[in-house]
UniProtKB/TrEMBL annotation:
Membrane-spanning residues: 36-55, 76-94, 100-125
Keywords: Membrane, Transmembrane, Transmembrane helix
Pfam short name (any one): DUF6691
Source species, domain of life: Archaea
Protein name: Uncharacterized protein
Amino acid sequence: MPLIFVGGLIFGFGLGFSHMARPEVVLDFLQFTDFGLLFVMFGAAIVTGIAFAIMPRVSDRAPLTGDVYGRRLKSFDRNVLIGGAIFGVGWGLSGICPGAAYASIGIGNFTILWALAGMFAGAYLQGRWRSQRAASETTPAGAD
């Protein structure tokens, strides 16, 4: 758990330091007037890519969970496209993605709590919808 806290601390500090925890910076990026977010994302992707390439060679198990490293391949399907589009609309309307929203609280943007409440409610509703859909697909026709 302490390692997770340290990771979150570094993540939040990095978002705050790069000004990515400010919705106006994210909205400027989405309107193609400030490309700083692009460089922050590329920098993070490069560091993460290196870590994902090196860690399985250093240890065969994840340090926190003890699980064996493996690739989880997710098919590119209709749900990925629809979910990505919905996520993008929410990101555009709120001006911030979930990780940066938490960091935004740390820089005093308490209005973002409305967006976080919406994220939790949306995730909860989607989980309920998926559970009900799965239950209806497994229930035999004509069963009460």
